[in-house]
Structure formats: structure tokens, C-alpha cells
Amino acid sequence: MQLNRQNKPSLGVIFDSDVGSRVETALALAVLYGLDGKNECRVVSISSTRTSLLSAAFCEVVGRFYAGAVSAAFGAFARTLPVGLAADGKIPGDTPLLTGPLSRVNPDGTKTYQHGIEKLIDTAEAHGLIRNAFTAQHDQNAAVVLAGPPTNLLKVLTLPGAKELIAVKVKVLVCSTALAAKELEAAGWPTPIVAVGKTDVLFPVATLEKEFAAFPAHPVADALKAFGKDAPTGELAAVLYAVRPTDKAFVLSEPVGTIRQLMLEPTEKERLLSNYVELATAKPVVRQPRFRRPVVEEKKPEVPPAKP
Fold it and tell me: Is residue 1 situated within a structural domain?
């Protein structure tokens, strides 16, 4: 069933990653929510291939930070998205990118960032969550951003009718690596695929002392602080291209099979970095609840009683 058939909403973005492996994934999430806050897209699914409760918890913490933006997916105020988590395989060691922000405490000893993920049952099955997100989108009004291994998406493709559903709902799949793009092409992913090539644009750690300094506490800023240096931006390019495919900063190669490589226009790199910083450090946009207007019936004229 599609939601809100009367007016086609902004692009729905499904974001699948291995949150906690690289700082740029946290920055890509911030850019994605920044675009959501501008009504350029809707974050409709968040999932992690990293089998770690802290990975899912960090996704939820970022979602709560941007609670106004996330709530638009449900039409409900201050409600965050469920987080999909790959539940099979060994739980990898948690990284400082996760433990740093999530262990932060206030002066009174309470946790700075609250979340509700303590057990596996507090997360959603990733491939089922992604498939359900597809079903709720208008035709050709969704994009998938993959920032990590294709584990969850490969599982989605094995579900009955999934390939046909994806072909109808999804405009493009944007992968942060060529290897993941090739794996999904080989598995029969049914839409055009864009793979991000190497980029030399770095997200400046100096934003911690400048733009991020406006926030008393910001989980993505804490992840960047734990990384401690300028960060790669390939995954940020994947997010921005998915939402703004006509941006002059992006150039596509000729297709090889169903895959095209995303490259950057050299003269646009400075502007592109400025866009990354603006979106990643944007203040959360609190949206009002979306209620249906009550149906008001016109008052009918009173009919005098019939004479006996």
C-alpha cells in the first residue's frame, strides 16, 4: 500500500551501511538528514550490515538527534525510524567511532545520547525492513544508498517478488564502492547502478571548532572527534548524488553493463565541500505532525415539519 496517494512526496531514501567502520558513514548520515530537513528527500529506512548493537544504537541516536526530520516518514511527531540490523555472523569488535559518542556522559553522570537498543530484539530484521520500505514508496520515487558491504541488499534480492518490486519503486542504486556495485549487478539488481569513484575531497576536522561548535552535543561531531583528522567523502557523494543527481559537481561515465561510475567535476569541488559542510552541520528541522483535515459537512437547511 502506498502512502499519501494524492500528492507525490519527495524522494524516499533507503540507507544501508556498516555504521561504525568509517567516520564518513556518520557524516553521510548527517548529510542525508540535512537533505531531509530541507524537504529534498525523506529518510525511509536505515540499516546496518555490521552485526553490532552499538552500530544500531548509533543509528538510532543520530535519528533521535534529527527526530523532527525522521518523523516525516511516519507522519508522526518525534518518532524515530526502526533500525535494521544484520543478525547473522560474528559480532565484530566495536570501534572508537561507536564507543566514543555512545559513552559520552553529562556532568550529572547521565548518558548524553539516549537510545532504546539494548538487545537484538530491539532492532528490525534488515532485509525485511528494506523490502517493506520499498512497498511504501510511490513508483520510481525511491533511491538506495549503499555505504558498505552489500550483505543486506543481496538478501533482499532473494525474497519472493523483490526484484520486480525494486524495478517498479527504485530509480537508482548508488554504491560507495565499485566492488559492491558489481556484486549486486551479478545478483540481478534490476535498476541502474552508480558506483562512486575515488574522491580527493576531504571533510575538514576544523568544523569541530567552527560549524559543529554551535551544538552542545552532536553524535556525528563526536564521531569526527574520535577520528581526529580530515575525513574521506565518498559516501557523502553517494548520498548527495542520490538526492541531487543533476548537480554540476557530478559526472557519470558511460555505462558498463548496468553500472556507471560517479566522478567529480574538478572546478566544482570547492562548492561541493561547502555543500557537505552546510548539510552535515545543519540544525535539525522539527516538523509539525501531519494530520488529515477533518471533513466538515455543510449544514443542511432545516425542513419544517409537514402539516397534518
Answer: no
